[in-house]
Amino acid sequence: MKNPVILFLLNFLFVYCAFSQKRTFIQHSLDNPVLPVINDYTDYSSFKVEVELCEGFKEVIELARTSFDSIAFVNSLKVSGLENSPNLKGFHIKYVVDRAKFIYREVEGGLPVLKVGLSAYLEVRNISGKLIYKRYTTPASNTYYATKSDSFRSLIGKILSYHFNNMISDFRALYLLAPSLEAYTVNLRKLSKKSPLNEFNEWENVFKETNGKSHEEKVKLLEPAQKLWLSYLNYNNPKDEDAQNNVRCAAAQNLFISYILSNDISAAEEILPQLKEIDKSILGVQVAYNNSYAILKDINECVKERIETEKISPFQIEPELSEEMKSDEFFNSVSFQGELINYRGDKLKGEIKIVNDNPPEIDLAPNYEEEVGLLGGIMSISNENSTVYIDNGLGNEEKIKLSRIEYFVTSEGKKYWVKKIPYLVTSRYALLEEVKGNGEIGLYREFYPMNNECRLKMENEDDFFVIGTVFPRESISKYFKSCPFIQSGLDERRYEAYDCSVYEKLYEDYVSNCSK
After folding, report:
1. H-only helix segments in 126-240
2. Per DSSP, what are the bridge partners of residue 111?
3. In 10 A of CB 446, how many CB atoms?
4. Bridge partner list, 389
5. Average pLDDT over residues 229-240
């Protein structure tokens, strides 16, 4: 999402450039030029959404002392490149909140704040009803807030939108053309009726004709125009050097956009240096070149994202939930019999209850998508986010901060280490069970607060490794830079699932091939 101030300045520069250089810039919303991983549904133009809210979430709405308009919410949902309409050929999305628990409602500094636990899943089907995509949100509690102008009613909608967007994000790369682009083509101004350059402007109209056309139809429409603009790249006007430059620059820019529409990215890259050379600077800015460069950058990032997504399954395996996680009390706390050992070596035995006092904060202010894109809101998590209560059965209950505890041992013999782990842009404490270890590297599974999440850690390092959300392959490459076998495995795409299975595979490959 573009910054509105930058967008305004770019538009101003385009207008200024048009008047100063006798060129008219015409804005277009380009059809998405990058093909999806799965090409079966590129002719789909819309989607419709069916929302199911469990009784627990209806109780959240009631206890938040507000109401919720499900029809307005459904109409507000967006999927890039598709129209939200049940009447066109498109996808059927089913969004189900299957568990939810109200924890807390308050107003802090004028901001509406809701602490809510929920789990959800999302399904996408084609027109025939075939399931083609599924994602889950595992049970977790969060603290949600937005802006002073938001009501609790609008905050409820933003909470649901946040989880919808997170679950639909892989669907975009797997099934949809992308990215959405705004581009400018060029007409020449102040031409006489007899000017031979009038044909230049006539061919600019071809861009409008490409809207809604197939790739093959676009190529056929654009080929004659491309031949014309190629001939104008060397246009000569010895009497007026500025006019000569205007024509060459206009031809280069139109060619660039036509190559993008034809999905000929290499040709677009080849024309870019020439456009930079001939685009006259306005107020220190090369407007045509900068716009074209930004378009190419967006496309290359999209292509990179598609490569990352190629081996990701459309069907997420349903998370395995522990017995504790199946209880709604898990949203507030988790309890078990056992003992805890603090960093002084003291042992305390009894019934242990870990309370999630300050769940991860999610900022749903209007600019959150601009800040972190598909990741959703900015996460702000207190390091001291859990309090531990231990009852020795004699009527004595002690209260301890989680950060002061080294590990727990349950009555069944399970050992949970208390560690600080990375989480999006910050860190948080978690209870982790070592599943495997060889003294050099360990594979851990999180018990609380996010059950079944996996982590890796080198024994000589303090930090845990979490696969990056945006560029996962790069994060794996950086962490295992000393392991050639894993580096080659990245090239061979052995680590593409990004769930617990890939952590297990990384562990086994490191131990078998790179462990000292």
Report:
1. 152-175, 198-204, 206-209, 215-232
2. 108
3. 20
4. 353, 399
5. 86
Beta bridge partners of 444: 434, 455
Q: Angle of helix 472-479 relative to helix 484-491, nearest 10 degrees?
A: 160
Count Cβ atoms within 10 A of the Cβ of residue 348 and give its class: 0-12 exposed, 13-18 middle, 19 or more buried.
middle
- CA 93, distance to chain mean position in Å, is 18
Q: Note the pLDDT tens digit of each residue in 360-404.
A: 788 887 654 433 333 334 334 344 557 899 988 877 888 998 889
145 beta partners = 113, 363
Structure tokens at 206: 């071809």
Tokens of 255: 């060619």
Q: Which runs of consecutive H residues, i.e. helices, occur in 408-493?
A: 472-479, 484-491
Share of the chain above pLDDT 70, in %: 85
Q: N- to C-terminal Cα distance for the chain?
A: 47
pTM summary value: 0.72
Beta sheet of 441-448, edge-to-edge order: 397-401, 387-391, 347-355, 333-342, 405-410, 415-423, 426-437, 441-448, 454-458
The answer to whether the CB of 458 falls within 8 A of the CB of 451 is no
Q: State pLDDT tens for residues 134-185.
A: 999 988 888 898 888 889 999 999 999 999 999 998 898 899 877 767 767 7
Q: Please answer whether residues 43 and 199 qualify as being in contact, where contact means their C-beta atoms are separated by less than 8 angstroms.
A: no
For 110, phi then psi, to 5°, come to 85, -5
**Sequence-distant (≥ 6) Cβ neighbours of residue 83 within 8 angstroms:** 45, 46, 47, 90
Q: Sign of the C-alpha dihedral, residues 160, 163, 166, 170?
A: negative
Pairwise CA distance, residues 397 & 402, whole Å: 15
For 252-288, write each residue's pLDDT tens digit.
Answer: 988 998 898 888 888 999 999 988 888 776 655 677 7
Collect contacts of 459-467 with beta carbons under 8 A, ≥24 apart: 463/422, 464/419, 464/421, 464/422, 464/432, 466/421, 466/422, 466/423, 467/498, 467/502, 467/503
Alpha-carbon distance 214 to 237, whole Å? 38
